[in-house]
Amino acid sequence: MSSIRVFSFNIWTDGRADGGASSGNPRCFAIRRELIKKKFPAYDADIVGFQETMPAQRQWLMDTFTDYQVCGIGRDRDLQGESNVVMFKKDKFDLVNLDTFWLSDTPHIPGTRFATDQSSCPRICTVVTLRRKEDGMLFRHYNTHLDHVGQIAQAQGITMILNRMASDYQTWPMPVILTGDMNVTPDNVVYKSIVNFTGLNAPLADKTADMDFSFHNFDPEKTHIKIDYVFSTLESTGSSIKVTDADENGVTMSDHYPVGAVLEM
Description:
The protein is an alpha+beta fold. The protein has helices at about 30-40, 55-65, 150-170, 190-195; strands at about 5-10, 45-50, 70, 85-90, 95-100, 125-130, 140-145, 175-180, 205, 230, 240, 260-265. Helix 3 links the parallel strand 7 (about 140-145) and strand 8.
């Protein structure tokens, strides 16, 4: 048995209103990406589930972290826009299967949404099945970003993901990892539905349960909300990981801290 280091990282979308590098705006991705490139490799992530990656950011991840494979498509009708890409080390894992489904009543129609209280944003879940090269062990990684507005849409979205997990597991059993920006705190019914889910061979335990907060809205001194998670049926080793020491000269890598866990396989 050996361990893998799994992270969830809402990278904050590359907004044109943030300006270019010359703007000096610490929210600008052209500035933040240099900090990500400098600091994040030290955490030696084996797998990362990203949220809010725009096409240019996906390409930057591919060009910058060449030891990794980046998988995923955009959530919009034309498969552009924000994505929940999964990035994993090429020398450790093989990609067995890749799928994206929309959190909607028509999960295989790009750009669709629930007709309830969902925001204008389509929401997706990226699913990768990976094979560890050293021993052939298979596992599934689901990566998502639940709606930030509609409580009903949040519940519908996580229900769809959990039902998909159960169906996948019945067809081809293997360990499960779920990462994402859930846009809910641990006292929320959505969170409770995850950790109390019984459709797999083991609980989807919160491997970041000892963490105080993850979302800081570019102001870590004032905002302290935990909405980013790593859940898994795998056992974990040690404490969870929060990438806070990357803050530098008023710049943070995102409005969320990357959060991670060491999982035993």
